[in-house]
């Protein structure tokens, strides 16, 4: 039985495309039931339509509060009755009530080696901080921003000639590997959540998750 997933986006949707491709090829046991974007011009909506997946634009600008937007978003998501909600470049901070509703069944991918560089503009900040390495983290979503239990991380070196754009490209390549893997582990019931902690095969994960290497199954 494939895991029913709803994916939230705000932009290009390359992570969404990685999930679509790997689910269509049977590499991950998921069925993407719907894609929802808070930006009506998100290219990821076109990716969903091309894959025959219901695509919805729900603009936060049409609501007078974060709570009212989140309530509408939750109602739309729950029409599809997902087992997992996947944030894939979704650029809105979610309310505590919303994150509690999906606690333990909502993932996010963040372009930094958490707990470093929470928030926005992570590639630029890592370069400006003269970091030698950077990367990406997949984590369960909690009310506190970018502070949920980390599942998987992948790293890349920052070279002297790297720009935020070149670094983003390197990180994207890592994202497209570790996000589908994380979702697949959840679909297999290998990845679980309990009382704020992440577990793989019933073993608690370290606070920075597992470092991704190609030999991970
Ligand atoms: N309660 C939570 N909400 C969200 C989380 C989370 O962990 N807890 N993860 C984020 C994703 N994210 C980083 O990975 C992130 C997204 C958006 C922002 C942000 O500052 N958004 C601004 C608007 C920015 C914009 O529109 O460009 C805002 O919401 O006011 C920070 C981090 C998803 N939500
Ligand atoms: N704070 C959240 C955040 O910055 N997420 C980042 O947005 C990009 C979305 O790319 P995509 O639309 O091509 O998947 C990804 O790099 C993801 O890590």
From TrEMBL:
Gene3D superfamilies: Formyl transferase, N-terminal domain
InterPro entries documented for this protein: Formyl_transf_N, Formyl_transf_N_sf, GART, GART_AS
Keyword Zinc annotated: no
Site (Raises pKa of active site His) location in chain: 146
Coiled-coil stretches noted in the UniProt entry, renumbered to this chain: none
Formyl transferase N-terminal domain residues: 5-181
Top-level enzyme category: transferase
Pfam families registered for this protein in UniProt: Formyl_trans_N (PF00551)
NCBIfam families assigned: PurN
Name of this chain's protein: Phosphoribosylglycinamide formyltransferase
Taxonomic source organism: Marinomonas mediterranea (strain ATCC 700492 / JCM 21426 / NBRC 103028 / MMB-1)
